[in-house]
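Minutes, project huddle
Topic: does the predicted pose make sense with heme C bound?
PN asked that the exact inputs be recorded in the minutes so nobody has to dig through chat later. Recorded below.
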Amino acid sequence: MDFLDKLVLPQSAEHIELLHYILVLVLALFVPFISVVFGGAFASLQYGKKYKKTNNPYYKKLSKDVIEYVTVNNSVGVILGIVPLLTAMLIFAQLLHKTQIQTVGYIALSIVFIIVALFMIYTYRYSMMVSTVFDSVNPDSIKDKDAEDDYKKLKASSSYLKIKYGKSGLVFLFIGLWFYVAAITSAANFTNWDFPGFITALAAPKVLLNLLIFITFAFTLTNGAILFIHLYWNESKKDEDPEYTKFVKDIASRAGLKASVSLPFLILINLFSFSNTTLSGSVFVYTVVCIVLIFLAYHLFYMIQFKNDYRFSSFIFFVLIFASIAFIIKDQKAMTNATEIHSLTLSTEYDKILADLKGEGTVAALSGKEIYDVRCASCHRFEQKLVGPAHFDVLPKYVGNEPKLVAFIRNPVKVDPAFPPMPNPGLKPQEAEAVAKYLLDEFAKRK
Ligand code: HEC
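Predicted holo structure (tokens), as shared on screen:
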């Protein structure tokens, strides 16, 4: 993603925070939509198959209704399926600027697969309407023998194409979602992401667990959406054929119950997979909120299934939408925690550029410790050697000789053959002085 990296400008600390909020916002649009498209396409194909087996016309009607409910129309597909993901890719490119992590590459691939998938699934929806037209024609009413043959051929091939588009769309969407989940998981586990291979990392246990959560959640939300749209939104449809409404209610609430039962458990495992640097109070709180909301949804499915109480059908959908938003915020909080040091590096660079632009040449606002944390701590610790030697081992020779230390920091020379040479950190004189003073003060304090 070199070309994206070149587009990126360093950001101020406030701007980086803002980017995290925008990311939550665009993903809150994208995730619920793409979830119901995936769950809906799967359910529609499944009910089509059931129709062939049982010949129950309700299955056929449901197969068509479901795909129409979840895809809404073409422009919604672009607005909710593609634009937010493109925005998310640009934001990730900013936040993860100058890192080696594969997040942006995953997002880019997921966009490609999802665009193809949406095209196919919308074609599936369209062919579904075409096949309804075919069904409504009575072949006996066709007088011409040739025309009747053509009619049969067309009908068969349109049905074949329909299923082909539906299935391929589902497979492409699955792969696209897998890349998407890998992107989010790698960003949320930024500090301890030790899966170097681009493709092999897709099989990392954390990614697979998150994929399982995503798919299970997609099925749950889809059934919530079917209940909401059919029982609540389309009041008129409900009265059209009460038998069919009962059929939809039964099928969707049972499927919703099945899908949601394992979710809280899976999300809990996900929580324990975070490392200490990533886990914080807010990550924990949002996870708990998400689990509670899913429990609630589970009970609402139960009420609809066994108590025939339709009032809950609108409730359930929104409860699940909120659950998905809580889950998204949780991942963003985790990413914010994991990339804290990196964000500091980026904003320090921004401050530097700003100071250079203003001609100040120095960043008065940064203390020695702040500069140290960002520019030195990646290679150094006080007590132990990391990339460079432990400060306690090398500082004694600089005690009482601060200028010598400043000189070394401003222009490192080769000292110890056991270490590689230290790269020049490129500090301004005042910055180097501040860091040197901080090191010696700290050394005096801790010894
Ligand atoms: C990319 C890694 C890296 C960064 C970043 C880095 N250092 Fe070093 N540092 C090293 C290495 C490696 C050595 C050992 C060099 C040698 O012995 O030749 C070293 C050595 C030192 C020494 C010992 C010099 C001596 O006389 O033995 C000091 C002091 C030091 N670094 C301070 C700093 C400070 C202050 C910063 C931040 C402004 C910093 N380093 C940033 C890698 C780094």
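Observations noted during the meeting:
- The CA atoms of residues 127 and 424 lie 64 Å apart.
- The chain has a mean pLDDT of 87.
No decisions taken; revisit at the next huddle.
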